[in-house]
Each structure stands twice: as structure tokens, then as C-alpha cells.
Automatic annotation (TrEMBL), chain A:
<protein>
    <recommendedName>
        <fullName>ABC transporter permease</fullName>
    </recommendedName>
</protein>
<keyword id="KW-1133">Transmembrane helix</keyword>
<keyword id="KW-0812">Transmembrane</keyword>
<dbReference type="InterPro" id="IPR010390">
    <property type="entry name" value="ABC-2_transporter-like"/>
</dbReference>
<dbReference type="Pfam" id="PF06182">
    <property type="entry name" value="ABC2_membrane_6"/>
</dbReference>
<keyword id="KW-0472">Membrane</keyword>
<feature type="transmembrane region" description="Helical">
    <location>
        <begin position="115"/>
        <end position="134"/>
    </location>
</feature>
<feature type="transmembrane region" description="Helical">
    <location>
        <begin position="174"/>
        <end position="193"/>
    </location>
</feature>
<feature type="transmembrane region" description="Helical">
    <location>
        <begin position="20"/>
        <end position="43"/>
    </location>
</feature>
UniProtKB/TrEMBL annotation, chain B:
<keyword id="KW-0472">Membrane</keyword>
<feature type="transmembrane region" description="Helical">
    <location>
        <begin position="206"/>
        <end position="225"/>
    </location>
</feature>
<keyword id="KW-0812">Transmembrane</keyword>
<protein>
    <recommendedName>
        <fullName>ABC transporter permease</fullName>
    </recommendedName>
</protein>
<feature type="transmembrane region" description="Helical">
    <location>
        <begin position="61"/>
        <end position="82"/>
    </location>
</feature>
<feature type="transmembrane region" description="Helical">
    <location>
        <begin position="231"/>
        <end position="256"/>
    </location>
</feature>
<feature type="transmembrane region" description="Helical">
    <location>
        <begin position="147"/>
        <end position="173"/>
    </location>
</feature>
<dbReference type="Pfam" id="PF06182">
    <property type="entry name" value="ABC2_membrane_6"/>
</dbReference>
<feature type="transmembrane region" description="Helical">
    <location>
        <begin position="21"/>
        <end position="41"/>
    </location>
</feature>
Amino acid sequence: MRFFWEVVRRAFRQETTYRLAMWAGLATNLFFGLVRAALLTALLPAGAAVNGMDAAASVTYVALTQAMIAFLRIFGMTDVSKSVYSGQVAMDLLKPTHLYTLWMGRELGKAGFNLWGRGVIFMALFALFHPLVFPGSLGQAGWFLVSLGLSWLVSFSWNFLVNLAAFWTPDARGVARMGFLISGVLSGFYMPLQLMPEWFTRLCYWTPFPSLINTPVEIYLGIVPAGELGVRLGLQLVWFLVLAAASQAVVRLGIRKLVIQGG
Amino acid sequence: MRSLTLYRRLLSIQLRSQMQYRMSFLMDVLSTGLLNGTYFFSVALVLNRFGGVVGWTVGEVAFLVGVAEIAFGLTDMIFSGFDADTFSPMVRQGQFDQLLLRPVNITVQVLGSSFLLRRLGRILQGVIILAYGLWMTPVVWTAAKSLYLPVVIASQVVLMGAIFIFGTTLTFWTIERVEAVNILTYGGVEMMGYPMDIYSKGMRRFFTYVVPFIFMNYYPALYFLGKTDPFGFPAAAPFFAPLVAAAGMGLALWFWRWGITHYQSTGS
């Protein structure tokens, strides 16, 4: 456990060194956020609402999803697969912790920094351009934080699992891109699932992806259908456990395939 | 003339090497194409629910997206040598100095240093979206319109290429790629994919007078689709695109040459 927190602390410190990249990332997120907010406010004139989404809520939805990009690594990550290609993974396997937990520590450190640097700061910047709504009660805010934590666990496990393709194919980048291709649409990152046709939303809920983004945003905005809060959080937890278990199993299979060239 | 033969030579080397791993190449084409395609799919699903946005039907928005995507895919393929992501390591590691020593046109060398054939995926995806847009909109295609559409696409390619060159020149001083340029390139395509009516006045002014994207896609689309101009620009506004592109490229090339004369190697 002490080892785990040491990994987290170091990853956090490493991430703080890239300050300029942080501001550049913020500027990019801000621009895309403004474009998306413009589209949604044009669709939802004052007074109009669909499934609880009105103009103010949809702008806040845009702000939250853009703020979560770096925290959840929504565009995918390739660090694990790169370590397989470079052989670094052999060193990692010697460390006194499971590969999954080791990477979780590294990613948690980064995420901790990005929650503040790319998340909270982003929300503050975005609020300069558009009025944002805040959770109605302390309880709602609390459940949002719980849900956000679960999203991180689901997102990390999903990204980790996708990266394991590197044990089998030399083109793990392509697989990662395919991963984002699916998650971008089904998670509600591109467009809020509330505004999608009903049949499509129902389809999404058969996959882990709404648990990635749509659920915490819904809870923040207070537009979860009555009595569904527990179900949504439970679903997040279940998907985290499923993906984590799958990762463990795949790692075990992958290691058997792994050949490291000595030197 | 010599430059042209050289460029063709460099191009054929690029193409041959990229076709070496056919399977991986096809995967790449497919996934980049689908990636941008799924984004439009999401938007189209939502737009369908509302029957369009600010008086633009889904088909008309598809027209905007399709043209912008084809043009950007082409830019990304042709000008990938000037993509700051590939160019900045050349400055950092001193490979740019090697290019400067060769007795051949430097612009041609950089242009020929990369030609990403896999961007065909994005272009193909743009073609499909454009075809969908054309199929959904009852537009009478006169000879003038059919001739002007390729000109509009070429103009967008040239202006985006100019922004690539501008961004690359900046790396002479910054060494690292300048991410703000991505806002104009990747952000620019996304922005141009929607009718300008949805943006705030400030944003619209910026994209009219500072970076005149409004004349590249929106105004030509008004002409092609036979829509009225809500902003009261002169009737010739849909035909400004080639002029803006030429001016932008002129400016970028001037800056590039000026940058080269002031270039100081990193010494690596």
C-alpha cells in the first residue's frame, strides 16, 4: 500500500511539471467547448427542455464533459501498450505489485493533478463565457463526487484493457482509436444521451460507456429519473468490477505471450 | 520544374514505404475514417430529433460538414510535412539543418518529407457525409455550381495549409509545437461544420475579420444551397474563398521565408 501511494505521489509531481501543456490543453478544450455550447444553445431556445435538458443544463453538460477529458483520459491512452513495445513492462512486472495496480497508481497521480488543473480551472474559465448551473443540494454534490470517482475507475479499467491488445498486435494504437470511436458516441461525450433518440440511449445502457461520462453529469445536473440514482451508481460499480476482472484475466494470458529481448 | 520532379520523387518514396504494411495501413484508413464519422453520426441523431438547427436541415448541415471534412483531410495529407507535430522534432534534433544544406528548394523538401496517405480515411468519410447531404437537399446543380465546388474545396485546402505553414514557422522559436495552432486547424474544421448563425457575435466577428473562415465554407454553402444571407454581406461574398486562400498562403509563405532567414539552429 505504501508503494502504491508513492507511485501516485510521483506521477502527480511529474504531471505538475508540464504547466505550459496544461494551459495549451485548457485553451483547446475551451474552444471546442464554446463551439459545442453554441450548437446546443441554438437547439434549445429559452424555455425548451428535452428529458430535463434545457439550455443552461446543456451548456453545463458541455463544460463538465470538456473538464473531464484530461481527468478521465477520454481520448484514450497508449502508455501501457508503449511499455509493452519498449520492454519496460518487464521491469514493471518485477515490481512488488500487480501490473494493473501499478498503472492505476500512475494514472491516479496524473488524474489527481488534472482534476484540478484541467477540471476545476476549466470550469472557472468556461464560466466566464457561459453561466453554469451548480448542484441543487449538498447531497447531490456528494453523490456527484462518488459517481465521478466511479467513472474514473471504469475509465481507467477500460483504457487499461484496450492497451493490453499490445501483447498480441503491433498496432495497439489502432485498437485504442477504435476504443475511443465506440466510447465517444456511446458514453454521451459527443452529444448528451438525453438528446439522442430513445432506442439509441437504451442501446447505450447495455454497454459500460454511459457509466463513463453520462452518469456523473446527469447526477450533477439533477436530471436522473426519480428512483434511478442507486441503479445508476450500482451500474457504474458493476462495470468497474467487470472491467477490472477482465483486465486481470487478460494480463495473465498476455504475460504468457510476452517475449522480452535481452540486451 | 526541377522542384516538381523532385517533389514527385519524394512523393513516390513516401507512398511506397507507407504501402509496405498493407493490413496495418487499411486498419488505419478505416479507423480514422470511422472516428470522424461517428462524431457526425452523434450530431445527426440529435439534429434529427429537433428537425435541424437555426433553419438548417440535417442534410444542409451534412453538406457543411462534408465539404469541410474533405478539404481538411486533403490538407492533412498534402501538408503533413508542415504539421508542427512532425516538424518540431526536426528542429529540435537538428535534422532541419541537414535539409537547409541541400541545394534544393527548402519548401519542396519539407512538403515532400511527409505525405500521409492514411488520411484517405477522413477524406472518404467526408465524401460519404457530403453525398448524404446532397441526397437530402433538393438543390439544382447548375454548371456554375458544379464548377465552383472543387474551387471551394481547393481554397479551404490552401488556407488550412497556410495555417499549417504558419504554425510550423513558429516552431523555429518555440522548438515545441504550438498547440494554439490546433485550435485553428482541428477547431476550425469543427467550427466550419455548423452554420455561423449559432455562434455569438464575438466569435463570428473573430472568424470574419481575424481568421476569415466564414467565407471559406459558410458563404459558399449559402450559394450552393440557395439560402439567404442573414448577415447582409455583399452578394459576392460566396466567391471570396479563393481570394482569402491566396492572401493567406501569400502571408504564410512570406512568414516562412522570413522565419528561415532568422532561423537559429538548436545546435543538436
